[in-house]
Design goal:
Layout: E1 3-8, E2 25-30, H1 38-41, H2 63-73, E3 77-82, E4 88-93
Parallel strand pairs: 1-2
Antiparallel strand pairs: 2-4, 3-4
Length: about 90
């Protein structure tokens, strides 16, 4: 049986985490941000890809590249999808 760790990030700052079985592990992060376009979903894990610029932030585009490298080093994978109408869903499978 799969383990699922679900982390839901909300504007109020609340988060809940739960886990049942240790392996394999699915970590799912759901947020309420602006979402991720279908076009960006295909390149978001590329080195130096920053997506949409956010005023007041500094981005170099290595964070998700690093996450992908770690997931793959452990025999896993990572993906992101839009969570219409608001936010995105990131999934790490190990």
């Amino acid at each position: 049986a799969n383990s699922t760790i679900l982390v839901r990030l909300t504007a109020s700052g609340s988060a809940s985490i739960s886990m049942t079985n240790p392996c394999p592990i699915h970590i799912q992060v759901v947020d309420e941000g602006p979402g991720v376009s279908e076009e960006l979903q295909y390149r978001i894990f590329n080195r130096y890809e920053t997506g949409d610029r956010v005023v007041g932030t500094s981005q170099i585009g290595l964070g998700l590249t690093f996450c992908k490298m770690v997931a793959e080093a452990h025999g896993g994978q990572i993906s992101v999808t839009d969570n219409h109408p608001r936010g995105s869903v990131s999934l790490v499978q190990l």
